[in-house]
Amino acid sequence: MDNKQLLRVKDLKLYFRTRAGEVQAVDGVDFELNYNRAVVILGESGCGKTSLAKAILRLLPRNISQYSGSILLENRDVMTLNEEDFRRSVRWVQMSLVPQAAMNALNPVIRVGEQVAEPAIIHLGVSKQEAMEMAAKMFQHVGVPVDFLTRYPFELSGGMRQRVAIAMALVTSPNLIVLDEPTSALDVLTQANIFNVLKRLKKELGLSFILITHDIATSSELADEVAVMYAGQIIETADAEPFFTNPLHPYSQKLMASVPRLHEQKELDFIVGQPPSLINPPKGCRFAARCPFRFEKCAEEPPVFQKDGREVKCWLYA
Amino acid sequence: MSQVNLAPTFSTQQDARPVLLSVQELRVWFELRRFGFGHAGYVHAVDGVSFDLAEGETIAIVGESGCGKSSLMKAILGLNKPTAGRILFEGQDINQFDAAKKRWYHSRVGYVQQDPFGALPPFMPVRRILEEPLIISGVKDKDERMERIRKGMEEVKLSPVEDFMEKYPHMLSGGQQQRVVIARAMIMEPKLLVADEPVSMLDASVRVEILKLLRALQERHNLSVIYITHDLSTVSYFSERIFVMYAGQLIEKAPVRGLIDRPAHPYTQALLTGTSEPDARNALTYKEIPPGEPPSLVKPPSGCRFHPRCTRIIKGECDVNEPLEFTIEDRHSVSCWLYKG
Cα separation of B228 and B243, whole Å? Predict the structure, then answer.
């Protein structure tokens, strides 16, 4: 096994039971991530990308009907651990999560410094004194003035609160941070600032990131690799450079063509129709109904094809 | 306000279209109260904004949250009373209207909200949502109302109409909900459409569909549109001119290409730097972003409101005197001392 490999997800499935039927939110996802790399999971709302984050961190609701596959984290299959071992040795120790809208989820009546220190006290068992020192160090890393430690969330701007949420994920020094839409509610300049912070963290602390987002343009600020998700499946994985210049899967191409550009005037494109329901996803390729290149083969489910070191789940590349 | 901006009003008269809406030296201040009654200053949400909007013209107002763009929009919709200044619609001051005239004004101006699900009443089917404005403005004939609803729905491509008539908002996708919002805004056949971040809650692929729909409606009805957004990248697909707003003031006004290719104000330049385009090289470099955050509008900075964050500050000028509006090229003006001449 390659010792540069941090994470390897294989055939991960997460299904939910609902009154309307079984929702196949994550349906056989494979991807890998090496140390000090960032992978972007790109997808539109309802494609299962947040469920994927939750499946990786095993933050599951009660109505799951299937949760299977393997997650190799630093050469250990964490899927085989029981709940208590997972909590003690994986979640927040080896990898942590910055959930969606984390900046609005801070406890309003506790000082932000204490909130950032809390994971260290619980997961590393350090004293409160030490944890506060660690929190102060993390504040410096994410660019929040240290005297903000004693402030309450309402005294901070949105960008500062988002940095605090990132500091909270960092305080136990995990190797992997999962970011779920870290900047989608923020202003342009604040967004750019947060991405500067993330880039610096990646360089200075050697962190790896899984960035989950629907925003293609800003995702390129951090991406080394891109995985495109559609209807619960990953349909294309590639390095950032070839992906952003020449995506392979028709869905990726259409998605890229819908991104408005500042400096070139090109006609924008959109995708007709809607993504399929995840309750009874169509047989065969799940994008087929909206795909301009559809042909007979597409009625069968496409396997993952290799093309120039990239992976794409589409019969066009057979 | 110790100083009054004496800059000449920016003129749009070159294209010879008649002016539909004229905003003149508009100020919207909100009083802050201490313990419910003592005066504690004002929030200067809109502070000296002037522009003319021609018939059939589309403009975009770009700014970050808290810059006052929503307060400006609400003043134009007649929902905020101006503290000073005037808003003229077809030459008439909208704040002098009596009740009947106000109803007429509200039928001339359509409003597209940001969050379509929040903007639609959850207990009304689409038909009822679209019927409401017609009932309020006194369209008595039921058949006529149904006819107009049908036409309105077809125009926003909610077809076949019968499939959507009796649906409730939660049964529709985000894009379809936004179409209902647009249909409702258009049902009275307004002359002016105010769209507040109409696509920011939508997915990338749907976003383009809605922008194209808005553009088609604009062209077909020769609508004037005020498009309010924080996202510069969508602006060039939709508007003729861009106004950049910062801390309650319009700091740069220019045609779209002029602003994007030759931004003049340091803040506009920063906004353009901050806007990402999909490019793998982005991950290799840091962005140069001005430090700090937009100022409090309770006590805005003296002089230029951007000066505490500006890297090109002229000491003794920018921090003391409020910048005048300088015209730097055809229809392109900027409020910044760097362009004094």
Answer: 10
